[in-house]
Amino acid sequence: MLAGMGLLADSFWRAAVYCLRPRVILLSVAPLLLIGVLGAILGYFYWDGAVAGMRALLGASSLLVSFQGWLQAWGAGDLTAAMAPLAVVVVATPVLVMFALLVVSLLMTPALVSLVAQRRFPLLERKKGAAFWASALWSLGSTVLAVMALVVSVPLWLVPPLVLVLPPLIWGWLTYRVMAFDVLAEHASKDERRELLLRHRGRLLAMGVLTGYMGAAPSLVWASGVVFAAFFFVLVPLAIWIYTLVFAFSSLWFAHYCLAALEQLRSKRGVQQPPRAVVDNQRSAVTTDGPGQGPGAPSSEK
């Protein structure tokens, strides 16, 4: 238990340090550009219609209409006109976040895992236990399940304690499923991946939940974008970039943790990685001496 917590803390601070590298910062901006372009295109074609539809939906609520009539009696303006854009942003935010997670998983995570592997685990054998398409299907399936869980749990958000627990828990489960699978897809075999995910499931889920709470912090920036409409198009991309940077940190954290756990697992099993020079020397010796005449083989010459 203590060893696992030590590995958890060690991988955390290593991931934080790696986030300061220029390469990681540049990688965190690349998905932002894609998300920004997609958001701008969707907003250009569908923003007015989405706001109008939301106003009609809010206007159909008898409770909200009664409350609006009471406010207008005191001189207040149109409540639905103010709430509709906010409601559209609130509804669109989880979609953008889920899409950002998929983009980071498919584009950033392999690059960051490769960075960690090259610098910390250059001799760790790559067993390629999962292909790219398997990783993509795993991420897509996990995301669909998370969205379904979010939709089903929305009524429970009205209970004050649960709104602080359920979304981060679902978010943490999704992050743990996607990140851990992608990190181990290249280096671990299928059996090793299953064993690590089962053995470290609790700590991996805790990592996912913690990064889920970290991902909730940019919501303050979203709220500022709604309140200060003049800076909306600056604050919203800033919030998306913060989300993306949190995802990058998550990828690095899971990469450091999972690869270190994989190295420990192989060490306990007695699977050692021979130095590259030894492997090259052995191969050259076999090639030179011919089949069956490696070092130590009896010579045919008399």
UniProtKB/TrEMBL annotation:
Keywords: Membrane, Transmembrane, Transmembrane helix. Its main location: membrane. It holds the Pfam family EI24. It is found in: Membrane. It is a multi-pass membrane protein. The keyword DNA-binding does not apply. It comes from the Bacteria. The chain crosses the membrane at residues 24-47, 54-71, 83-109, 130-158, 164-184, 204-234, 240-262. Residues 272-302 are annotated as: Disordered. This is Putative transmembrane protein. It comes from Acidovorax delafieldii 2AN. The lineage of its organism: Bacteria, Pseudomonadati, Pseudomonadota, Betaproteobacteria, Burkholderiales.
